[in-house]
Design goal:
The complex is a heterodimer. Helix content of chain A is about 35%, strand content about 25%. By secondary structure, chain A is α/β, with parallel strands linked by helices. Chain B has a single domain (about 60-340), classed as ABC transporter involved in vitamin B12 uptake, BtuC (Orthogonal Bundle), CATH 1.10.3470. At the A-B interface, strand 2, strand 12, helix 10, strand 20 and helix 14 of A face strand 1, helix 9 and helix 10 of B.
Chain lengths: ~500, ~350
């Protein structure tokens, strides 16, 4: 052990949210002047950990030492006073304020205690921007008019406007071009030579190799490895740490079936500029096709475009051979598509309404004559659909918001079951669903496929795609980089593909 | 540099137990509580009226007057309830009532008699609603702004038509409807129209696909769209409906006042919104109650009547109204959080 204490030492940090333990005894040591990388799959707990560090979340248990002294980070301001700054993935800038106003937001240089010294604010902002290698950004310009990369620089300038000892960067390269990434790395290098520590979060292993000193790997809310050397640990070992499961999901058996008949869903050359490149895919009756990829790989955008919720730039979607009107959800629903979107609460559920009404919302014309609802028939049919999926509680008039995540997802599936949908588009179907309920959902999805539905499944959890799908398309940055039957792929291979674009040897 | 690799713990407790949904009390039960409390407030008001002015307040004529006054704003509020339930707002109702009432009472229109007046009032209302609906649903305008623009221009047009003059109705039959001779079993025809509009409104909101779609659009427009509902068309229909209600209200107002004026329907938008909100309709959309709105209208009209009978000025009335809105919303928030 080094004689002097680390700059930051977090130990035994736990944090639970309703229904999920996001952090389960995480340790993290950061030395002054190092770049410490955090790695982990989606949902591994990275975001929660940095929010604890930023004072935005309070840990349930655990201790935090700062320069050897125990501290409590009660609020973002408390963390900032210690010298901890965080640059979030979604930048937290005020678009209608100028660069200088954003940089000094909350700690404006003042005269007589309240008059903002605008000139002083501009000058110090300009100095910070020069230091960051972006003297071309005008401190007086509105932040909303800057590019994403420039906004990131402003965010960094704001961090540096405090006397900062540690900067947390959450996927800072996600929105940047390659030469902007180079500039980012130069800034990181400058910072660390000033003995500032950087906690760097990224999905991209090659970045971590370039600038990282040490790596901590998070998985299922635990630090499965702390302080690995970033440059020399083999990729294979890092990937194994990220994926090594300690929760076994029970996937239903995959029937061996010939799917050479006519496709149910046929997508040809579908694209949207800036989101994903022209894509071909087919889904046959009884088949589950998986799209594997990281956040930002265009997965959700593809599903929503197939569904008509986004207007495609080019390409066609056919259901049962019939061409769909592009950009029309109603045409898609009529043709037999059904979407279970990623953000269940925001995009699928009517949270004030009962289960029945959530289930029947897409099939109202079936239960009405001249616009008049036959509530008896509606209730009977909705109950039949929810019972088929064993939705609990078995109470059709329960408000949908009182249901657990898994049962809310079943309500969405029941909606499409009732509608008589032919192709289900599932976007992260088990997000926010606890482990026990997952196996049940998997069984439901497989059974629906066995009954002749086509399923197009998107998930950032590679095991889920591999365990459930018959065929897998691997996406990276809006492009299909690989397609193969699921049984010919394994998790390491897919992770190599989604992170590096080519299988690592 | 330290390096340690801890083996994954054998964890089956990764997920904290999800608590079962709490023992659940029906949506119906909660809305019943709300309706009962509104009825309680109304009963208390009637009690106050009966105590302070026993002879005048409980007089049949006075009660008929209260209900008649409630009818015009009540019809507007039914339409407003639909719009608010869908997550929208219609600030132009008062101006539409004014425009419809003056357009329907011009000399030219009156030549077509009773039917001409009724037809014109309704068509002007629906026409204004159509413009609102197109701007909001297909023009992508925020309802607040689109209907604010309609408020300004409809009032302006009403002033232009009348030149500030009161247009007296001379058509036979119209004024008779306001007379006591036309009351059926003591119920004025205006009140009957209000009752019919209320019942139809309740049925549409609670028993038809139109009502379901309204609630779905207000509760979560994105979810409604992804569920295959034509959200834009629904929004268009809702502003048409509100315009239709304004047209009917304008016709009732013509009967009541025997004239058309460009100052008609002044601040109806605020009264209708206030009545809907204290009735339990969510301003953010997704929940609406016609029963509550009608009770809200009756509460406000009764207060106005009691204050007038007790010779209290309208400034005091306004203050009391404001206090009631605040109290009602605070009480609702409390009941919402405890259930």
């Amino acid at each position: 052990m080094a004689p002097e204490p680390p700059l930051l030492s977090m130990s035994g940090i736990t944090k639970s949210f309703p229904g999920v333990r996001a952090l389960d005894g995480v340790d993290l040591d950061v030395q002054a002047g190092e770049v410490h990388c955090l790695l982990g799959q989606n949902g591994a707990g990275k975001s929660t950990l940095i929010k604890v560090l930023a004072g935005a979340h309070q840990p349930d248990t655990g201790t935090i030492h700062w320069r050897g002294e125990p501290v409590t980070l009660r609020s973002p301001i408390a963390a900032m006073r210690l010298g901890i700054a965080t640059i979030y993935q979604e930048l937290d800038l005020v678009e209608h304020l100028s660069v200088a106003e954003n940089v000094h937001l909350g700690h404006e240089p003042t005269a007589a205690g309240f008059v903002v010294r605008r000139r002083a604010a501009r000058e110090s902002t300009a100095a910070l921007l020069r230091r960051l290698g972006h003297p071309e950004i005008d401190p007086g310009r509105l932040v909303g008019k800057l590019s994403a990369a420039q906004q990131q620089i402003v965010s960094m300038a704001r961090a540096l406007s405090h006397d900062v000892r540690l900067i947390v960067m959450d996927e800072p390269s996600a929105a940047l071009d390659p030469d902007e990434v180079d500039n980012l790395f130069r800034i990181v290098g400058d910072l660390t030579s000033d003995e500032v520590a950087v906690v760097y979060i990224s999905h991209r292993l090659e970045e971590i190799r370039r600038i990282g000193d040490r790596v901590t790997v998070l998985k299922d809310g635990r630090a499965v490895a702390g302080g690995l050397p970033a440059k020399t640990t083999p990729t294979r070992e890092v990937v194994a740490l990220m994926t090594g499961r300690n929760v076994e999901y029970a996937f239903p058996d995959r029937p061996s079936r010939d799917v050479s008949g006519n496709p149910l869903l046929e997508v040809r050359g579908l694209s949207r500029e800036g989101e994903f490149e022209p894509l071909d895919l087919t889904v046959h009756p009884g088949e589950i096709v998986g799209l594997a990829g990281l956040v930002g790989s265009g997965r959700s955008e593809i599903l929503e475009t197939v569904y008509g919720a986004r207007r495609p730039g080019s390409g066609q979607v056919r259901v049962d051979g019939r061409l769909l009107k592009p950009g029309s959800v109603r045409a898609a629903v009529r043709a037999g598509l059904g979407l279970a979107p990623e953000e269940r609460k925001a995009q699928a559920l009517l949270m004030l309404e009962s289960v029945t009404r959530n289930v029947s919302v897409s099939s109202m014309s079936r239960f009405s004559r001249g616009g008049w609802m036959d509530r008896g028939a509606e209730l009977t049919a909705a109950r039949a659909a929810t019972r088929e999926l064993s939705l609990r509680p078995d109470n059709p008039s329960a408000p949908v918001r009182t249901l657990s995540g898994g049962n809310q997802q079943k309500a969405v599936l029941a909606r499409w079951l009732l509608r008589g949908c032919r192709v289900l588009l599932l976007d992260e179907p088990t997000r926010g669903v606890d482990v026990g309920a997952r196996a049940e959902l998997y069984a439901v999805i497989r059974r629906l496929a066995d009954e002749g539905l086509g399923v197009l499944l998107v998930s950032s959890e590679v095991p889920e795609v591999l365990g459930l799908a018959d065929r897998v398309l691997v996406l990276r940055e809006g492009r299909v980089v690989h397609e193969a039957p699921a049984r010919e792929l394994d998790e390491h291979r897919v992770l190599d593909l989604v992170m590096e674009g080519s299988p690592a040897s | 540099m330290t390096q340690h690799v801890s083996p994954p713990r054998d964890g089956t407790d990764k997920t904290a137990p999800v608590s079962e949904p709490p023992a659940w009390r029906g949506v119906l039960a909660r809305s019943d509580v709300r309706t009962l409390s509104l009825l309680g407030v109304l009963a208390a008001l009637i009690l106050i009226g009966g105590i302070t002015k026993p002879d005048e307040f409980l007089d049949t004529r006075n009660l008929q007057l209260v209900l008649t006054q409630a009818s015009v704003i009540g019809v507007v509020t039914v339409g407003m309830t639909f719009v608010i339930t869908s997550g929208g707002i219609d600030l132009s109702v008062g101006a539409i009532v004014a425009l419809a009432s003056v357009w329907a009472t011009t000399v030219a229109t009156q030549e077509y008699g009773f039917a001409g007046i009724l037809f014109t009032a309704v068509i002007v209302g629906v026409g204004c609603g159509l413009v609102n609906g197109l701007l909001i649903a297909y023009g992508g305008m925020v309802p607040f702004i689109a209907t604010l623009a309609m408020l300004a221009s409809a009032r302006g047009l009403a002033l232009q038509i009348t030149d500030g003059n009161t247009q007296i109705v001379t058509v036979e039959g119209i004024l008779d409807l306001g007379e006591r001779d036309s009351y059926v079993l003591g119920v004025p025809p205006l009140v009957m129209v209000f009752a019919v509009v209320t019942i139809i409104g309740w049925l549409i909101l609670n028993r038809t696909t139109f009502g379901r779609r309204t609630v779905a659009v207000g509760g979560n427009a994105e979810a409604a769209r992804l569920a295959g509902i034509d959200v834009r068309r629904q929004r268009l229909y809702l502003y048409l409906l509100s315009g239709l209600c304004c047209g009917i209200a304008a016709f009732l107002l013509i009967i009541l006042s025997g004239s058309g004026q460009n100052t008609n329907g002044n601040l109806y938008e605020l009264d209708a919104i206030a009545a809907a909100i204290i009735g339990g309709t969510l301003l953010s959309g997704g929940r609406g109650t016609i029963t509550g709105s009608v009770l809200g209208v009756l509460i406000f009209t009764t207060i106005t009547n009691i204050f007038a009978l007790n010779n209290l000025q309208s400034d005091v009335q306004q203050i009391a109204k404001g206090a009631i809105i605040v109290a009602a919303v605070l009480v609702q928030r409390r009941t919402a959080s405890t259930t």
